[in-house]
Amino acid sequence: MAEHTSSSIMIEAAPADVMGVIADFARYPDWTGEVKEAEVLKSDDQGRAEQVRLVMDAGAIKDDQVLGYTWTGANEVSWTLVKSQMLRSLDGSYILKPAGAGSTEVTYQLTVDVKIPMLGMIKRKAEKVIIDRALAGLKKRVESGK
Length: 146
Known about the structure:
single chain; alpha+beta; 7-stranded antiparallel sheet; 3 helices; 47% strand; COQ10_START
């Protein structure tokens, strides 16, 4: 099993509000930094995204990718790579846990495998940067109420 990188953050909002921002793919370019375009290609019968095309620009890695999403209850979403130019695989998840007083602990896990050779240590560092930026952006977006 591939190693994954994981990090958590506390957000001063209810899990439903946090998940609302996570599920709003059209707004990702507003807060994620790396996502330049996002387009929902397919939705389930509850209106949740099942496949999303993302145009990414993370410095050294620029990619046009399609991710498949799986929603587990109201507080967990995971994704896996459907197609990509630069990546061999990409698996991730957001897991939300109510933390009392209207707060939510958000844990983001990510495993990335690029098609170009890259040392494991460098790959983990890149995963950590992506996770930390995404969590900081999510926190700012949710807490600002925009």
